[in-house]
Amino acid sequence: MEPDDVCLRTIECYRPRLRKLIKVEPVLDRLHSLDNDQKELIRNKAKTDGELNAADRLIDAVIKKPHSEGWFREFVDALSTGGCQHAADYMEGNLPKPDLEAENDSLIRFTELLSPTIVNMNTNVVCQHCFSEGILNQDDTEKIIAETENKGNISGARELLRRIVRSRPGWFSTFLKVLRDTEHLILFKELSGSSPGDDMTDVSDAAGSGVATEEGPVEEKGSSIREEDTVESDVATEQAPAEEETLDSSITEEDTLDLYNEESTETRHLTEGVDVLQPDGNSTAAAAGGQKETDIVLRDYQMDVARPALEGKNIIICLPTGSGKTRVAVYITKQHLDSRSSEGRSGKVVILVNKVPLVEQHYTTEFKPFLKDHYKVERVSGDSQLKISFTEVVKNNDVIICTAQILQNYLDRSNSGEDEGVQLSDLTLIVIDECHHTQKGGVYNHIMMRYLKQKHKNSRLKKEQKSPVPIPQILGLTASPGVGGATKMAKAEEHILRICANLDAFKIMTKSLGENKKELLKKIATVEERKQDPFGDVIKKIMNDIHAHADLYPTCELGSQNYEQWVIQNERNAAKEENQKVRVCADHLRQYNEGLQLSNTIRMCDAFSFLNKYQEEEMKRKVAPEAEEPIQITDTERFLFDLFKGNKRKLQKLAEHPEHENKSLSELRVKILQEFTSRESARGIIFTKTRRSAIALCQWVQENPKFEEVGVKASHVIGGGDQSVVKPMTPAEQRDVLNKFLNGGVNLLIATTVAEEGLDIPACNFVIRYGLVTNEIAMIQAQGRGRAEDSSYTLVEVTGSGVAEKEHVNEYRKSMMSKAIDKIKNMNQGEYDKRIMEFQIQAILEEKVRMTKKKQKGMKNDSPSVVKFSCRGCNKPVCSGENIEIIENMHRVNVSTQFRELFIQRENTSLQERRLDYETNGFIACKECGQRWGSMMLYRGTEWPCLHVKNFVVTCNGEKKSKCTKWSELAIRFSAFDYAEHASSVVQSSEDEDTD
Question: What single string gives the DSSP state of each residue in 323-350?
Answer without folding.
Answer: S-HHHHHHHHHHHHHHHHHHTT----EE
